[in-house]
């Protein structure tokens, strides 16, 4: 069930009903899985926003190899036609971004009941500094909810991580980038923003 729902909102009671156990028991199991670094519960960004915010965590299976094995995906060629592709891609990118996160930045997601949404919000202290949308497509179009998120949070650095290789910026100022480029280039910019000094790092990207 966790594999099928990776990248979605966590609903303990739904799991409890499906498995025939109590909500507290589900939470205890999830605590164990998170402690074993098998899952991640990504919390929503709630501070300083006068909006009706979705308050449930999002759940991710941290190792997409497990996701693919459970779904019977034996090779990369089988992945694009599988319904799990969106959740798998989001899980992988979220894990890589958080794994390389500068110490002064924390990661959340953002979603309102009126449709504003960002897969990741990077926060310094109590100030959101970047919104990130994750897409599997090689020719993505940002959803209106992503632009609303940028407006709500007033972030100056906004990115769409997609499956293409070419980096470019659209008219609205959203930077389209591959995951590799995000980790190698734009993180330097975010680090410089956090520390207000010029730093140079070599990021090791693992496939």
TrEMBL record:
Per its UniProt record, what InterPro entries does this chain match? DUF4143 (IPR025420)
Question: What protein name does the entry list?
Answer: DUF4143 domain-containing protein
UniProt domain DUF4143: residue ranges: 1-136
């Amino acid at each position: 069930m966790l594999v099928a729902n990776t990248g979605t909102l966590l609903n303990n009671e739904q799991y409890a009903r499906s498995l025939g156990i109590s909500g507290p028991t589900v939470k205890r199991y999830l605590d164990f899985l998170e402690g074993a670094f098998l899952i991640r519960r990504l919390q929503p960004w709630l501070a300083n926003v006068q909006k009706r915010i979705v308050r449930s965590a999002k759940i991710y299976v941290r190792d997409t190899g497990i996701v693919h094995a459970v779904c019977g995906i034996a090779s990369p060629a089988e992945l694009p036609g599988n319904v799990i592709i969106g959740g798998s891609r989001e899980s992988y990118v979220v894990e890589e971004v958080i794994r390389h996160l500068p110490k002064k930045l924390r990661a959340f997601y953002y979603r309102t009941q009126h449709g504003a949404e960002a897969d990741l919000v990077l926060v310094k202290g109590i100030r959101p500094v970047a919104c990130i949308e994750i897409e599997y497509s090689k020719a993505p179009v940002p959803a209106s909810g992503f632009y609303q998120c940028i407006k709500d949070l007033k972030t100056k650095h906004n990115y769409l991580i997609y499956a293409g290789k070419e980096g470019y910026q659209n008219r609205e100022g959203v930077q389209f980038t591959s995951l590799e480029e995000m980790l190698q280039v734009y993180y330097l910019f975010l680090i410089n923003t956090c520390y207000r000094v010029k730093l140079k790092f070599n990021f090791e990207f693992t496939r």
